[in-house]
Fold this sequence. Notes:
- By secondary structure, the chain is α+β, with helices and mostly antiparallel strands.
- It has one domain.
- About 15% of the residues lie in helices and about 15% in strands.
- The relative contact order is 0.18.
Amino acid sequence: xxxxYQFPSRNRRPGSIRDLFSDQEYxxxxxxxxxxxxxxxxxxxxxxxxxxxxxAPCEPLRDDMIWYMNERKNFGVWVINESPYDxxxxxxxxxxxxxxxxxxxxxxxxxxxxxxxxxRERIVWYVDREGYxxxxxxxxxxxxxxxxxxxxxxxxxxxxxxxx
Length: 164
């Protein structure tokens, strides 16, 4: 039996979450989204403060933090952008090494599962030098806690297929 290899083409659509990740990663991400809907309905109100999302919750904890506000989706969050890309939404969802990591200098959605308004002072959309972003936390010593570090053996499927 022959194996068919698709020729990379810029006209192809990026891989879906099902194509790119294991069943376990897919189920974990979908569960996260389900919990996010419940969070929006029940808990989100506890995390809001006067002026949100138009006003930052505090002065930035680091010099490289900027306040980003998405009027269309009605949310705001700190951003640390180490990439050469301007802060803007990317029209197509391009996943990185995890469903929680996206090729986007701007956050694609509200940070969910926040437990208090105070945590909004520390939550950031962190964008690495290659343009991949994920939510992270600024610790007390101003270092970043990045929940899903890039694996050393990860090959950028988006570049390989010509999506970026």
